[in-house]
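Quick one, T. Sequence first:
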Amino acid sequence: MEYIARFFWINITLRIFLTIFLLLNLCTYTLHAQNKSHNTIKLPTYNEKSIKTGKEKAQLPLFNEFEFITYLYDDTGEGDIFLTTAGPMGGNYNIIIDNYGEILYYENVADWDFKVVNGNHTVSYHSGQFRVRDSCFTPIDSFECGNGYATDPHDIAILPNGNALLICEEYRYIDMSLEVDSGDTNAYVKGGMIQEIDLISKEVVFQWSSFDHFEFTDNMHGANLTDAYFSYVHMNSIQQDTDGNIIISNRNMDEVTKINRSDSSIIWRLGGKNNDFEFTNDTSMFTTQHDAKRIENGNITIFDNSVFNDSPTRGVEYEMDEVAMTVTMVWEQKREIERAITSMGNIQRLPNGNSIFSWGSVWLEEPNVAEYEPDGTKVFELYIDGDYSNKTTYRAYRFVWRQYKTLVKNIAPETYLFTNYPNPFTATTTVLLNIPEEGNVNISITNFAGKTIKTIHNGFINKGTKEFKINLQSLASGVYFCTAISNNYSFTKKLVKQ
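Structure tokens:
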């Protein structure tokens, strides 16, 4: 009798476990099917955000067919993470996320280089141009290459005067039989071009072409000079140096180049076949690099993909003596995984001295973003847990940034009127603004660098359409922004003073 009773309870227990197993699988299948049917990110319907300490894992809500996982090991730099996911199968998103997994913003777009400029504006490459948007993601400006050239998506540099440095795509038919043995007589060759675009007129005010300054044989990797088509330069970053000249990164040449903004001549070449410098303590140098940038202390940081150095991808910082023509490595942060990243990636040096990395085209189960203290202590990691189509991150940044969620989520664009007339104007202009709700509002004029130069109103204001006549006669000609900010919204309007 005891044996029968024992068998009975064992049978009941097994049936219960089997039922639970089937229900869990059914839920998993249903959730997967629901997520797969959506083309945009699935927002969470819950909030499980909590304080994470030590090495506890913070899971983010499920996106289309992937999720984010963050590890917070210690204090990080200030701000939130800005990144763009990318992959050969699509799945591109602009995403802003905090250390604990709260999604502050997302959009399903095929953008590149999503970052903050001028304090609280964002810029990213979208549909052939770089678009500048305010904190509500309302477009307020855009830049694209001129003179018939297409805009390259790798990078943009907004200058202090509001102009923009862009990389352009330039192609020429070249008789390569005159350059190399067995070269194609009508090869279609991609070079690299730089343009500076005027903020107001959008005209090209400076243009520089690699075809006029580099040799095809300067190529180190990525191009077979006997092919019918090849790209021998592959520019992937651009920056105005502190002296007004221009620094570019040329991946396929293993070279960082400084160009004279006045006469287009080459000032120096770092790395590659035409290296002008002595590397005092870094014999491996760098290869297939990205994101070469002059930082605040005067040094240059480079994301060294290191594809052909038989060593892990790393970030490296060089102190440069541009008189003695020597470079000294003063900082290096290698990826913990012994494998080179073949494409993409960047470094951002933060105000507190930390460095944040996008590791680019990583493999599955590898971290996408990491932040390190100057001594190499890792304080933050972010993983994208999904298939390869969503796994890569072109660049990642950390910015202190304010988002106006009420406007983004709840106030339709047609409910607010924000315009001015005349525009352009010479001395005065009238701004019309429909205030969507009563409350305290700050209305001010800022320049392109984000500096407030005139306050129009700061205090309580009733709901409804308001008119403000603004006298800017004392200001120099250029582009300015009128911004209205409350606790729940922000509107921005571009003003052009002639």
